[in-house]
Amino acid sequence: MAPTASIKSTKKRKAAAVEDAPAETSFPQEVGLDLGSEGEEDGVEGDDEDDGEVDEFPEIDAGSDSEEEVEESEDEDEEEEEEEEEDSEDITDVDDDIRPFPISKTVISDITGQPKRVYPEIEPDYDSDSSTEDAPNRVGNVPMHWYDDLPHVGYDMNGKKVLRPARGDELDKFLETVEDPNSWISAFDKTAQADKPLTPEELDLIRRLQEGENPDASYDPYEPTVEWFTGKGKEEVMPLSSAPEPKRRWVPSKWEKQKVMKIVRAIRAGRIVPNKPKSEKPQFYSVWNDEPSTHPAPLPAPKPRLPSHAESYNPPEEYLPTEEEKKQWEETEKEDRDRDFLPQKHSALRLVPAYNQFIQERFGRQLDLYMAPRIQRKKLQIDPNSLIPKLPSPASLKPFPVYKSLSVSHQKGRVRTVGISPDGSWAVSGDESGVVSLWEVIVGREVKRWKFDGKIGAVEWCPRMDVSFFVVAIEDHLHFVVPPNLHPTVLSATLAVLSPATLPPQPDTPSPVKWTSVAAASYSADKPLLSIALPPSSGVPKQVTWHRRGDYLATVSGGEGQGGVWIHQISRRHSQAPFKKVKGVVQLVLFHPTKAHFFVATQRYIRIYNLAEQKLLKTLLAGIRWISSMDVHPMGDHLIVGGYDRKLCWFDLELSDKPYKVLRYHTRAVRSVHFHPTYPLFASSSDDGTIQIFHARVFNDLMTDPLIVPLKILRGHEVKEGLGVLQAKWCPRQPWLGKLSTVKGGMADPAKWSHCASDAA
Amino acid sequence: MASELSHPVVFTTATPYPLPSQKFMIPASWKRYQLSQLVNKSLSLPSPVPFEFLVRGEILRSSLGEWCQEKGIGEEETLEIEYFESVMPPQKMSSIPHEEWVSAVSCQVPGYFVTAAYDGQVRIFDYSQQLLRTIPIHDASATSVVVIGQPSASAEHNSYLIASASHDMTARITKTPFGGSDSDEQSAVTLASLHLHTAPIASIASNLPGSHLLTASWDNLIGIWDTIIPSADEVPADDAPERKKRRKNADNSASKPKRKAPIGVLKSHTARVSKAIFSPTASNKAFSVGFDSTVRTWDVENAVCTDTITASSKPFLDIAISPSGDFVLAASTDRTVTQYDVRSPTLSTAALSTATFLHPSTPSCIALPSGSSSNNNANTNNNSQQFITGAYDGTVRLWDRRSARSAVTTLKVWEGQNHGRKILSVDWSESGVVGIGGEGGVEVWRVQGSGDQALGLGGVVRAAAS
């Protein structure tokens, strides 16, 4: 078999060699021949394979390259087999011509006596002639780049150097490419030092790599499936597991059904249109066909301001800042400056220094790019005027006192206190030397004068309109004095009140307070009609205050430990001390105008007592270190408190026990505060010699806050010995103010009383 | 000067010094003095007479050019300028010191001054500052005094009725002879006391014939009284202190004064009434002012208020009425004197208040040249434009109604004295004598309007010289 195969293969090789150049179409015929001959001559072994191959790919084009290569590779395999066979078997060949290699003969060597192979002499015929071939380079399997620097490239059979053949220049190369049609499939062979055309295998390899296929030509990606378990007799009869078949294998899927139904419903509802006509969008359209836009063109960016002369490197003199301007510029905040540079004068452009704000400016820009504000503004940009509460203008709140209309003087001694009659016609003032003067308010004439022993602590007019008298408080005594020139009915009523014909019965418990009165028949205007002797050593009463009805009056004396608060009732001629013990020194007391409440001010606190129920209602915390004065609004819901520490607090009694407002307008201690009985005004007098007039409107509506507007500062009082305006009181009917102060030292009148009238002009 | 701006001007006058009615070209820089010189020279008057010039109802205070500029009047416009003799600077004639404050002064009787003082006494002086009589009419301060009736009518009799008001809530009518002295056999007799008020009486006023009196009181009432002395008490005498008071009075008056009741009461004021006066023209009309900032017009016969002018927050202190009865002047405590037109009852107050005269201090009193003089010549026209006010700062101001901006002239009283200088009363007789009463007593000044020389002022001058 082997010889036939080898013959066939040589034939085939020859055929290949011969038919390499002619058209490949002839090649399948040859193959077909081969197959046929093989099928004839081959044994059983290869039969299956070949049949399978042919059966498997009947449609494959026999003329394709791959087929040919398959054949070739098969051929090569066969050749190798043949060689082995040749090696193993010693077969004398019949046909020498066809043999590729000379067949050796094994002979017994004459010399050694050993068998040796003897090859026949090579006949130098065409087949064996190698003289036309170039001497092959026998350098061996070494990298050729070793010879890059050498003139030779290897060695021939004789050990001679094979010199590097001369290479043509670029022109030669070009001509070669033009002349030789195979030059595009040839490559430089370093071993041979010449351009060798690539073999078809190499070309095929290149093609495979180019097309991204597997470079191995023998790899078949489309190998036929091997059916191991399919087909008759190959089925698996036994199951792989004994688990029962799951239900899902035969029950239709609920979820699929739901999904399908969802789609069905959508189709029914028209949400899904099955054959939706494709909206025809024109592929091309005219850019200019649309109507021109009616929107205005976007605003162009504002033009940067042109640089002024001040920005010149050599500005005129008038643009240069003065020293003050420079200082002011440096002192202003960076963001508040009106311009961010100072004009500087340089005589020449080359003298202009580098921009010293470069780093800062770049940093700022980068902060801007980073969406970060350039500066952290701590200052709030609030218009200070907007923070001022909207107050009505004082001109719209007239009338209020604006100027000094009159001033009258006491001869000597400080005027401590003033009282004004309820009809506003008369005023009475008392000084420290014991003189009490009665004045006519409008004209300012002293109508009458009384002299008492000792300092006058307080004078206060009885608020009743049907009677007319006032109380003078001196050391340990209260004197009730009737002014002159009363109408007979008023006078008789006054006498009846102060010195009744039948005295009320004495209370059971004897009081330390003694009431003595002159009989009405022996009345004279020069003497007090009624006197109350307070307990001895109680000191000068600091304050006398009347209840609104004029029957009760309360006095506060300084000296006593009890606080020295007494409430006197005229009609019963009875006095009582309402407090057994008082914490702190009582400064002031006050009757509530409408309720049976009683305000007691100690140094720091104001306590409100209910006299009817005899209990403490509330304690107000003024935040004043030393309370000096207090007055309650005629409506009764508001209280103002003045302190020696210059503060004036307004309490809303409904609101809180903390001040609703604290006014700090006086520069010295507040001496007195007083609400106007009818007009919405109040006044505060101070040791700084001023009286401040405020508009104080109180609303019946509980939701509206009281409106307090400062109106006017009345000046003109001299401050003497640190004492300014000691008391200020309003005339009840008119916007006039009685005030008093210690002024004018020296010999002449050390005290002064004056009033102010409203001015509409 | 010649190239300067000039105005065409036509001069008119009511004085006996008329200029020919032709157009003058007056340089714009000219002031009153130059204009006055022009009039004097063109008329070639024997003695220079100063003139004041009225341009469109305003007294010229600046130069003509400035005035035109202020009013926006073009150069070409012809201005009509009226001129009249200017007021001579007032001269102080005499000073009559008083122990007490003088609350009222009256110089309506030629040759005499009547003063009411805070000690309740009424004093009579003649022009030679001689105290003729001291009449202790009241116990308490007298606030007002008025001579009842026409002074000239009973001149030969030389005995007058005077009415006085006081803080003791009464007003009294006293018959007193002027002239002579207390030591004479004739003495003053208080004939009647007027009982109505329950508060001090602020003022008393009589009408021109002297038949009726008006009292204004602090108890918001105005009393109307006739001057007939009743034969018996019309008001029952009341209780003890009143009797005691009268007992005191009895020392000076032989017979008790009759207690007289009012014939009418005007009540409408809501606050103290400070003054009530009769209209000089209509006998049944009266005006009053009060602290309730109203000026009220009254029908006296029916005792009803016919018209009310309500000012805003102006408590009024005094009122005076022009002799023609056209307008009233009211002084208020807001340091203004306001002129109200009372000719026809109008509704709007703004239209009524025609001019406001600002004072630096409270004006307490106003006087117009006395209303009785309907006798004489053209200068009543002039005088009716002028009035004087006295203020608490001791200054009497003479105003012209036509120039509200500043007073024509001012006179300061009691200068150099250390007590207060409040002026409580002023009176201006038709002869140009101004009596000023106040804290420092009485001062007499002569304010010489034009043509006043003819009257009895010579006596004053002589008296002052003596």
From TrEMBL, chain A:
Xref: SMART domains: BOP1NT, WD40
Pfam families, sorted: BOP1NT, WD40
GO CC annotation, single: preribosome, large subunit precursor
One GO biological process term: maturation of LSU-rRNA from tricistronic rRNA transcript (SSU-rRNA, 5.8S rRNA, LSU-rRNA)
Location in the cell: Nucleus, Nucleolus; Nucleus, Nucleoplasm
Protein family according to the UniProt entry: Belongs to the WD repeat BOP1/ERB1 family.
Name the record gives this protein: Ribosome biogenesis protein ERB1
Gene: ERB1
TrEMBL record, chain B:
Region feature Disordered, mapped onto this chain: 234-263
WD repeats: 194-226, 266-308, 368-409
InterPro entries documented for this protein: NLE, WD40/YVTN_repeat-like_dom_sf, WD40_PAC1, WD40_repeat_CS, WD40_repeat_dom_sf, WD40_rpt, WDR12/Ytm1
MF annotations from Gene Ontology: ribonucleoprotein complex binding
GO biological process, one term: maturation of LSU-rRNA from tricistronic rRNA transcript (SSU-rRNA, 5.8S rRNA, LSU-rRNA)
Entry GO terms, CC: nucleolus; nucleoplasm; preribosome, large subunit precursor
Keywords per UniProt: Nucleus, Repeat, Ribosome biogenesis, rRNA processing, WD repeat
Subcellular location: Nucleus, Nucleolus; Nucleus, Nucleoplasm
Pfam families: NLE, WD40
NLE domain segment(s): 9-67
Family per similarity comment: Belongs to the WD repeat WDR12/YTM1 family.
Function: Component of the NOP7 complex, which is required for maturation of the 25S and 5.8S ribosomal RNAs and formation of the 60S ribosome.
Assembly and interaction partners: Component of the NOP7 complex, composed of ERB1, NOP7 and YTM1. Within the NOP7 complex ERB1 appears to interact directly with NOP7 and YTM1. The NOP7 complex also associates with the 66S pre-ribosome.
Protein name, entry field: Ribosome biogenesis protein YTM1
The species this protein was found in: Steccherinum ochraceum
